[in-house]
């Protein structure tokens, strides 16, 4: 049997994870306009840190995965073309579709002279209506027609950074949006042969698939803002612990256990952007969502809850050395986009603090923002030694293992634990945990 040929355009977390997964089963070509990334990937080097990706990348390359920086005839000759480019927001908070428009235009140009009929699959997160109202007209330039010259599906992705491979290998659902049954079947067959186990594949139309993606992220963001509100209440109530409350309410199957970990607020390249884009989109079609605005505002003010805990415990911040433990927006990634740590660092610097940033993976990315305004270390001991306060921002495993003796090297052993990963009993240590009332 001839192996199906698949192109994946845009090699961020979503595109690369899919490429290295499908790459061991099909003939896959990864496309990205960034030449440096392509060169590194061709040598089996991922340009971002993600657990297990190196292993899958090397395995897929052995199986024939190749990379290119151009959308050309070779790409158009593929059976399936996944589009996984980034869809950031512009300065007004609305979705910026310039990457996906440029890619669609390049596909159309090459498709105009092609003989085959590829299935184009939009995996990027796009605001409702984009596939049919924005992408389709671009693809239909040069007298091309959907169904005759190409098929167009919407297939949102739900993987998380830090567990991208695990989520790609075992997705909780596969949503395929489209109107052409043959095209839906073609993509379904690809997924069926890629996965050993039977998958939960659901079919719908393009716009519903687009809404599902935003609804999914907005709901998860709502859960986090909700539990952060409860954490802030617990903070003022002696003998309460937000984790205990989350554990028990999570036993109600109508609520569920996941995404109820209170913290400094959600960050990353998805929730802040997607909640904002949905707010703007809803406004533009005549609906102002009080709930989504509250989710967003609760999240952006959570940084103040963390700052208050720091200020309550160090009276005069000026000149104090503060260790920030965890720079990445979550554990198991080097990504610092919208990381609350960077916001805390900026506020501490404004207050005259000397900041030392610690993170197992995200130091290089943080240095790009703060340069020599702060110091950096990969050694937890160095971060803690002589500091006046340490703030645990990211729940890396390394921080869960912190012992009392590690903390006693501080000038004044004050730990603000925004993720409740440690528990110190020593009377000489001041531990303040977000969401635990004392
Ligand atoms: C999120 C979604 O979880 C994915 O399903 C989705 O595919 C992805 O966005 C996307 O749209 O691309 P991601 O942002 O990578 O994934 O990571 P999450 O694990 O969702 O964490 C997001 C933020 O929420 C982090 O800052 C994390 O620390 C915070 N969080 C998460 C909490 O504060 N509490 C929780 O209980 C869970």
Could you walk me through the main structural features you see in this protein, from its secondary elements to its overall organization?
It is a single chain. With 438 residues, the chain is α/β, with parallel strands linked by helices. The chain contains 17 helices and 14 strands. The protein has helices at residues 13-22, 35-42, 53-62, 73-76, 98-111, 130-139, 164-169, 181-194, 206-235, 242-249, 271-284, 290-313, 340-350, 363-370, 380-384, 397-400, 404-407, and strands at residues 5-9, 27-31, 66-68, 80-83, 119-122, 151-154, 174-177, 201-204, 321-325, 354-358, 375-377, 389-392, 414-417, 430-433. The strands form three sheets. Strands 3-2-1-4-5-6 form a six-stranded parallel β-sheet, with helices on both faces. The mean pLDDT is 97. The structure holds uridine-5'-diphosphate-glucuronic acid. Uridine-5'-diphosphate-glucuronic acid binds at residues 125, 157-161, 217, 220, 224, 259-261, 263, 266-268, 270-271, 329-330.
* Distinct helical segment count: 17
User: What is the rounded Rg?
Assistant: 24 Å
| Distinct bound molecules | uridine-5'-diphosphate-glucuronic acid
Major β-sheet profile: 6 strands, parallel
> Kindly, what is the distance between the CA atoms of the first and last residues, rounded to a whole number of angstroms?
67 Å
Poorly predicted spans: none
* Structural class determined from secondary elements: alpha/beta
Q: Overall 3D geometry?
A: elongated
Would you tell me the overall average pLDDT? Answer: 97
Strand content: 5-15%
What strand order characterises the main sheet? 3-2-1-4-5-6
Helix content: 40-55%
Task: Tell me the number of strands.
Answer: 14
